[in-house]
Design brief:
- By secondary structure, the chain is an alpha+beta fold.
- Helix 5 packs across helix 11.
- The chain is globular.
- The chain starts with a helix and ends with a helix.
């Protein structure tokens, strides 16, 4: 495979080859095919498909999250994303500050296995980094537990104090990053609506609780390689380091290579990793 062929293949899978998605059905099919994608492009993660790019049909000149409001391609993409969220065909994950991660319904339990709580009904105690949650985050969780789904304005009324916008955003992100809550809707005049993840999608959460970290990583790495065709070990480790430690990613890659689920391929002057042909054929049959 040449580098040009690799880029062409990615453009086809990512729908940036001049064939944008327009309908709900096309958006669902795209997300199911790639498994996960960024909402907006992130400079540090160029080897990840974007939902905005698939809606635009091009990777050229896509805005980042900070400048997306001014781009006419953004609103149709948001509308499609919201429809997927409402239908539980997609889940929005707070992966990094520059862009949320959209995950397909079939793949979401594997994401939950890496980020979520093994006691999903319990009140939260710590953030993803292990530090204690802020008092405001705990109050926000209790408010959503009692009244959800609710938007930010309603949360302020329930909490009955007047936290700053920045403080409220930090509290929501603390809970979102450990998948205690999730955004389930957007309305133009009212903003985002939040609900407890376990209440919103109990079956997916309980499936995720039963998946081990190595099993989840294997599923995610395989699906990621389907979406990007081939990637270097460094690219794999960099992307998945947002979810788990780099050592766990390396262990998973080495185990999959040893089991011949993954194989090495030469692309130009680079040695990349891709799905082994047998594993790829089996995966496509299972999904198709």
């Amino acid at each position: 495979m040449t580098e040009q062929e690799l880029h062409q293949r990615r453009a086809e899978i990512w729908r940036t080859n001049g064939h944008p998605m327009r309908t709900f059905e096309e958006a669902k099919s795209f997300l199911d095919s790639v498994g996960l994608c960024l909402m907006y492009p992130v400079r540090a993660l160029p080897v990840v498909p974007t939902f905005l790019g698939a809606c635009a049909g091009s990777a050229t000149g896509l805005p980042d999250a900070r400048h997306a409001f001014a781009d006419p391609r953004t609103q149709p993409a948001i509308e499609l994303m919201v429809r997927l969220l409402r239908a539980r065909d997609a889940y929005e994950v707070n992966l990094l500050p520059e862009s949320s991660l959209l995950v397909s319904a079939p793949l979401f339990p594997s994401i939950y296995a890496l980020l979520g709580d093994r006691k999903p009904k319990a009140a939260p105690k710590t953030k993803a980094q292990g530090a204690k949650l802020s008092p405001l985050a705990l109050r926000v969780f209790d408010a959503i537990d009692q009244k959800g789904p609710v938007n930010t304005r309603q949360l302020r009324e329930i909490i009955s104090r007047e936290p700053s916008d920045a403080a409220m955003e930090r509290a929501l992100n603390e809970l979102w990053s450990i998948l205690k809550i999730i955004r389930v809707d957007y309305r133009e005049k009212e903003g985002a609506y939040w609900n407890l993840l376990y209440r919103w999608t109990p079956d997916a959460v309980m499936e995720g609780v039963g998946i081990s970290v190595p099993e989840a990583l294997s599923a995610l790495i395989g699906k990621y390689l389907e979406a990007v065709e081939a990637a270097s070990q460094e690219e794999l480790e960099h992307f998945f380091s947002y979810l788990v430690s780099g050592s766990k990613v390396r262990e998973a890659i080495h185990a999959l290579l040893a089991a011949r689920q993954l194989a090495l391929v030469t692309v130009g002057a680079k040695t990349l990793i891709h799905l082994a042909p047998v594993a790829d054929d089996a995966r496509r049959r299972n999904h198709g």
